[in-house]
Design a protein that fits this description.
The protein has 689 residues and is α/β, with parallel strands linked by helices. Among the domains are: 195 residues, Rossmann fold (3-Layer(aba) Sandwich), CATH 3.40.50; 155 residues, Dimethylsulfoxide Reductase, domain 2, CATH 3.40.228.10; 124 residues, Barwin-like endoglucanases, CATH 2.40.40. The chain has a six-stranded mixed sheet with strand order 5-4-17-16-15-6, covered by helices on one side. A six-stranded mixed beta barrel has the order 22-26-23-25-24-27. A five-stranded parallel sheet has the order 10-9-8-12-13. Helix 3 packs across helix 19 and helix 9 runs antiparallel to helix 12. The N and C termini lie far apart (57 Å). The mean pLDDT is 96. It binds ligand MGD (2 copies), iron/sulfur cluster and molybdenum atom.
Length: 689
């Protein structure tokens, strides 16, 4: 640390904390104890000096007038969002007493609920994990986003590994599959554009005509949940036209003959009917994929939020093996790179504090049902206390009518660690003020690139805010947890995250450290499976297949008769999940909660752009504005996410409509597998515009 005059600007190394594959390296400028600017680190290979619009506004979020800066205790009825300030000592004493009393009866009645509000390894599951392990609380299955794809990659490749993002710049064919890269993976898009300038063909595979689709050479607007059928159709063509790299298949994969049999039953005509495409589109894509090398696939999590999402990822993950695309560094596939990082989760979370106990595991994606369940054999005790951090489940979890009912339970004790009074915090008994990324230390891996980043605390915590770690440290002390790991500082924890495998001092000096990895990781096999081969037929998983959606005309004709439109709810460009919805400058760009609907679906329902709509099914009703647009394909409506309910229309958001049925692999929610009907809301008298 260099001492400088207090008023002189200084720059510290930061990392974007958000759940985004790009994990940007930031330079944070501090003047007179206040952050005045955040910028992308120009030296970091993935960031290349640029942050997205949202995070360029990070100081606006940190210094927001509505930041929670003191502990708050509920005074009004549950869910009313009425609180009084209370001192830290009093809040922690009461919380420790309440949790202690429940734990004395059964610690499994306490559930932590957290996700990736920050992706930091220190402010994520380190001290929090230790606390809940020591307590013996129920464990949380963190499935809400990526676990179908993650399990699929593990089945096929042995881990969450793939191409290096920068090599897409050298690809000649880039399939952007289930990804609105311009909105949610901007730094990949930079490489895709470089490839395009060098003559590459870009193909977007997405039910929605996104801004990314607009800029690709070709857009295949398939029906949601039919990606597996498309992959099988492509395989059929590669087989019958003799375009397989048989040498790669023989040496570096196992189980192909079984999938080959299956794929032969999927001529392009069959795939096209299922996908809602033309047979020639399937044939043309297969031809391109065989002819144009190196060919690279940027798969993203958007395509696995359906019943068959895991199987679809496994089918697509097989394609680069079929044509030997892995032989070159600019060929292959990237869904996640997080498996490349040598993260020491056990050091961070200390599972040994369970001391032989095996608490139950509850799935975060079924929190709606689980909060409403009574004690039962096979389930265990009723949930009596929830401790929420790094997540906003009342807005983001599926089937929110049930989630809200659960959070409204008078007999549920809820503590929420937050920056703001979110929809979830409104339902708390205590809200504890947490620091933002500018106020605490952290270290980060990434799921879109391959360098480790550090985030130094740029300024002291605002008001009485504390880092998550410090809140759990103090709570542990109150509960009488005396193990030395509860006294560790954030820096000690940060040093353990990657152990000796990352030079912490080098990380501090530069802000990031590139992992040493092979350029073309699977050019000669070397998949992290026991055999080193890609498992097309994986023990315990079998051979992948196309599975129709939970809610589709095929699987539920009864439902499709009443609710004929499929709805997807992908991210809005200027929000990050439900984060930033309360930052006015960004909310103003998004305008209002919108449903995109194709003119052929809008006309018979008398819907014009700007009309207030009721979007409904048996689970609930979402009120939003119509955007009649060819961004939606016929038969599919796009409800852009994820608004705070209280900032939406009539206190609703799109998760009023989604359900809690899980994916084939990974026990994940199937947000984009949802049937609805849409009508103009007659109650709303508002001029069209
Ligand atoms: N601006 C912004 N960036 C974000 C986020 C955000 O909310 N806003 N969220 C972050 C998070 S949490 C994640 S997990 C990542 C990745 O999150 P993803 O969910 O992958 O995000 P996108 O790439 O924006 O959207 C996925 C795309 O998949 C499309 N899609 C929906 N259903 C299907 C389908 O069945 N098949 C196919 N082929 N496509 C389908 C949608 O229309 C959308 O364009 O993005 C992160 N980045
Ligand atoms: N319908 C529909 N629903 C979806 C999705 C969809 O596409 N459609 N996407 C799903 C996906 S991919 C995901 S990942 C989930 C995301 O859901 P969440 O993980 O809940 O993500 P956010 O909505 O961004 O909420 C994160 C919260 O953490 C808080 N936070 C941030 N940093 C810190 C910190 O350091 N300490 C504490 N205590 N709090 C902090 C933020 O203020 C914010 O309120 O939503 C899912 N829900
Ligand atoms: S949200 Fe993504 S693109 Fe934006 S700054 Fe963070 S990591 Fe970079
Ligand atoms: Mo996510």
């Amino acid at each position: 640390m260099v001492n400088v005059a207090p008023a002189a600007p200084r720059t510290v190394h930061g990392a974007c904390p958000h759940d985004c594959p790009d994990t940007c390296a930031m330079r944070v400028t501090v003047e007179a104890g206040r952050v005045v600017r955040v910028q992308g680190d120009p030296d970091h290979p993935a960031t290349q000096g640029a942050l997205c619009t949202k995070v360029s506004r990070y100081p606006e979020r940190t210094y927001h007038a509505e930041r929670v800066l003191r502990p708050l205790r509920r005074v009004g009825p549950k869910g009313a969002g009425r609180f009084e300030p209370v001192g830290w000592d009093e809040a922690l004493a009461d919380i420790a007493a309440r949790l202690g009393a429940i734990a004395a009866r059964d610690p499994e009645a306490i559930l932590p609920y957290s996700y990736a509000g920050t992706m930091g390894l220190v402010q994520g599951e380190s001290m929090a994990g230790r606390f809940f392990h020591r307590l013996g609380a129920s464990r949380l299955d963190r499935t809400i986003c990526a676990s179908a794809g993650a399990e699929a990659l593990t089945a096929s490749y042995g881990g969450k590994v793939g191409m290096h993002v920068e090599h897409f710049a050298e690809s000649k064919l880039v399939l952007i599959w289930g990804s609105n890269s311009i909105a949610s993976n901007l730094h990949f898009w930079t490489h895709a554009q470089a490839a395009k300038r060098a003559g590459a063909k870009l193909v977007c595979i997405d039910p929605r005509r996104t801004e990314t689709a607009d800029k690709c050479h070709q857009h295949l607007a398939l029906r949601p949940g039919t990606d597996g059928a498309l992959a099988l159709g492509l395989m059929h063509e590669l087989i019958v036209h003799g375009r397989l790299d048989q040498d790669y298949l023989d040496r570096y994969t196992e189980g192909w003959p079984l999938l080959r049999e299956k794929a032969l039953a999927w001529p392009p005509e069959r795939a096209a009917v299922v996908c809602g495409l033309q047979a020639d589109e399937v044939r043309g894509l297969a031809r391109d994929y065989a002819d144009i090398q190196p060919a690279a696939i940027r798969l993203n999590y958007g395509m696995q939020r359906v019943r068959g999402g895991g199987n679809a990822v496994r089918l697509i993950a097989t394609l680069p093996c079929l044509v030997g695309a892995w032989r070159r560094r600019a060929g292959g596939l990237l869904l996640s790179s997080s498996g490349w990082f040598p993260t020491d989760h056990a050091a961070l979370q200390r599972p040994e504090l369970l001391a032989g106990r095996q608490p139950r595991t509850l799935n975060m994606s079924t929190i709606g049902d689980d909060l409403l369940r009574e004690a039962a054999p096979g389930f265990g005790p009723r949930i009596e206390a929830l401790v929420v951090y790094n997540s906003n489940p009342v807005a983001v979890a599926p089937e929110s009518p049930k989630v809200v009912r659960g959070f409204m339970r008078e007999d549920l004790f809820t503590v929420v660690l937050e920056h703001f009074l979110t929809d979830t915090a409104d339902h708390a008994d205590y809200v504890l003020p947490a620091t933002t990324q500018l106020e605490h230390l952290d270290v980060h891996g990434s799921y879109g690139h391959t360098s480790v980043l550090i985030n130094e605390a740029a300024v002291a915590p605002l008001g009485e805010a504390l880092p998550n770690t410090e809140i759990f440290r103090r709570l542990a002390r109150r509960m009488g947890f005396l193990e030395p790991c509860f006294a560790e500082t954030d820096e000690q924890i940060a040093r353990q995250a990657f152990g000796a495998r990352v030079d912490f001092d080098a990380l501090r000096a530069r802000g990031w450290v590139q992992l040493p990895l092979p350029e073309a990781p699977f050019a000669e096999g070397g998949f992290p499976t026991p055999s080193g081969r890609c498992r097309i037929d994986a023990p315990g998983w079998g051979v992948p297949d196309h599975l129709p959606n939970h809610e589709s005309a095929e699987s539920r004709p009864d439902l499709a008769a009443r609710y004929p439109l499929a709805m997807i709810s992908p991210p809005a460009r200027n929000f990050l999940n439900s984060s930033f919805v309360n930052v006015k400058s960004l909310r103003d760009i998004e305008g209002e909660p919108l449903l995109e609907i194709h003119p052929v679906d809008a006309a018979p329902r008398g819907i014009r752009s700007g009309a207030t709509l009721r979007v409904f099914n048996d689970r609930g009703t979402y009120v939003c504005r119509a955007d009649v647009s060819e961004r939606a394909r016929p038969g599919v409506v796009n409800g852009l996410g994820i608004w705070w309910r209280k900032l939406g229309l009539r206190g609703t958001n799109v998760n009023e409509l989604t359900h809690q049925q899980l994916t084939d692999l990974g026990r994940a929610p199937s947000f984009y597998d949802c049937l609805v009907e849409v009508a103009v809301d007659e109650a709303a008298a508002r001029p069209l515009g």
